[in-house]
Amino acid sequence: MDIRTENVSRYIMPLREGGSLPALAEADDGFKYVVKFRGAGHGTKALIAEFIGGEIARILGFRVPEIVFLNLDEAFGRTEGDEEIQDLLKWSEGLNLGLHFLSGALNFDPVVNQVDPETASGIVWMDALLTNIDRTIKNTNMLVWHKELWLIDQGASLYFHYSWVNWQKHALSPFTQIKDHVLLPFASQLYEADKKLKVLLTPDKIEEIVETVPDCWLEWEGSTETIQEKREVYIQFFKERINNSEIFLNEAYNARKTLI
After folding, report:
1. Cys bridge to 158: 49, 94, 133, 244, which one at CB 3.0-4.6 A?
2. Which residues have C-beta within 8 Å of that of residue 65, sequence separation ≥ 6?
3. Which of the four pLDDT bands, split at 50, 70 and 90, describes residue 87?
């Protein structure tokens, strides 16, 4: 995959959303990015989830801001006045993740903004696949930019990798949290979405995405597995989950029936 790598040149402002302290920053290519830092609470695993989830969304045909790898120099945070941010920048030396900043975008509001059943069903299917717990009415993690729907913040996906045990069980889980998905009431074409999206998300595509995850994000303290062994777990997780998609598909379908 052709993912650009740039250097952070200017820290603009923190985006105090949740506990991860993402920030708006400028890179040496002149563009602004929302930066997700490796030194934040969930470390590089949140960056892995953001990257894999974002690129899967792109393959499935959804709009996602361009993802880039962003280098942060060790001296970058020395002039930052806020001690919390200074520490975050110090802990985030090296390769971080950036998403192209959609200037002027508005938060998606399900009362105001309409989503067609095909799109809603596809997003629900994808988030059930990713086990994304963070696309709710309280925090939709969707933007409207130039009258088009954009998906952001996939970092709350793949929660199995925080424990990194019994991934096979997680791969075959129904994902009960789908009942809280903001688009579930509009997702009337779930089975059609399943047939369509599984054709797009081939094993080769999954492997390509996972193989593009930077090695340094897979160097976890206390882990005895090699980097390639960790990649293989992600690949097998998705292959198992897609091959058995009826498990999470039926869960979403039944959850939606309770809403309508």
Report:
1. 49
2. 34, 54, 99, 100, 101, 102, 150, 152
3. confident
The answer to whether the CB of 110 falls within 8 A of the CB of 116 is no
By three-state DSSP, how is residue 164 classified? coil
Residue 228 to residues 176, 186, 207, 212: CA-CA distances in angstroms?
Answer: 31, 40, 12, 12
Burial 95-131 (b: 16+ CB within 10 A, else e): bbbbbebbeebeebeeeeeebeeebbbbbbbbbbbbb
Token representation of residue 78: 């020395």
d(CA 190, CA 128): 11
Positive/negative CA dihedral, 51, 57, 59, 62: negative
173 SS3 class: coil
- Residue-wise pLDDT tens digits, 170-214: 999 999 999 999 999 999 999 999 999 999 999 999 999 999 999
Looking up tokens 């920048």, which residue turns up? 89
Burial (CB count within 10 angstroms: exposed 0-12, middle 13-18, buried 19+), residue 191: middle
Helix axes 203-212, 227-243, angle to 10 degrees: 150
d(CA 128, CA 198): 13
Token output for 149: 């729907």
Distance CA 36, CA 61 (A): 23
How far apart CA 250 and CA 191 sit, in angstroms, is 9
Spatial separation of the C-alpha atoms in residues 45 and 220, rounded to whole Å: 9
Q: Rounded to whole angstroms, what are the CA distances from 223 to 122, 159, 229, 236? A: 35, 17, 11, 19
